[in-house]
Amino acid sequence: MGEVRAAVSELSQEEANIYDRQIRLWGLESQKRLRSVRVLVAGLNGLGAEVAKNLVLAGIKSITLLDNHNVTNDDFAAQFMVDRKDVGKNRAHSSKAYTKNLNPMVEVESEDGELVNKDDDYFRKFDIVCCAESLPTEDLIKVNTRCRYFSDLIQHAYTQEVPKLAKAGGPGPAKKRKMEDDMSAVIQKVMTCVPLSRALQVKAGKASTGLDRKTSPLFFLLHVLLRFYDKHRVDPCESEKEKLLELRGEVAADLAIDKERIPESLFNTISKEMCATSAVVGGVLAQDIIKVASCKDPPLKNFFLFD
């Protein structure tokens, strides 16, 4: 993800009053940066709804909800923005009113369409693009490549508060209070972000250069799930365990690992969206977007795996 370059705007007194608690948390400058950021959330499933909720409450400038699917009964397991009367209607449009009511100060738009079919001019309208829906790996890479192109491809600059180290031997009693009042420093950092295509191509290798013994089995499971979607264009359910086990062997061979590193037990509880899981992962994802938008604290490095 590249550096956000939205022009920083001033906060009104009303905004300062509403966002007072979070200004105390991450600072006025970070809140002003947030207030200038335009976000696109593609996919208004349970995860997308959680992300949209958290970003709107944080006080971004605008959010656009994009989805080409209609509301179904399956959505009610995790998607809290839609109602029973919305079944058969577009998910993005049906989620707009709820999203707007969360924070009237945020501009909210909804659109019917597929992210991968949007042209370059469409992507230019946003500072951050969040894809919350399942897409073929090829399409995810296309979207990632476009976003990198419009954000100078590689780097993200941010500030981080770090503790100061006390001198050896410690201060005398008279200086102790002064040191305790000034025990941290804010430093500037720059991180380099690799393309999604490269992150997914990493195979087993030497320590720090590839997949090693510390790599979570969930990362290998992610590859299996991506391959299943590429092949069937739907997310798997528990009854499709045998198909997933077949793909397990293919993934293990491609990543140059033993297939036993993808335990069969992982496939016993495969299911689609769950409310609690969407809430946790959506909260972490929204928090990471806020970090990038506010240029405060380091964002996650490529992947977040939650079990």
Automatic annotation (TrEMBL):
Stretches assigned to coiled coil: none
A Pfam family of this chain: ThiF
A Gene Ontology BP annotation from the UniProt entry: protein sumoylation
GO molecular function terms noted in the UniProt entry: SUMO activating enzyme activity
Family: Belongs to the ubiquitin-activating E1 family.
Protein name from the UniProt record: Putative smt3/sumo-activating complex aos1/rad31 component
Organism: Rhipicephalus pulchellus (Yellow backed tick)
Domain (THIF-type NAD/FAD binding fold): residue spans on this chain: 19-304
GO terms under cellular component: cytoplasm; SUMO activating enzyme complex
Signal peptide span: none
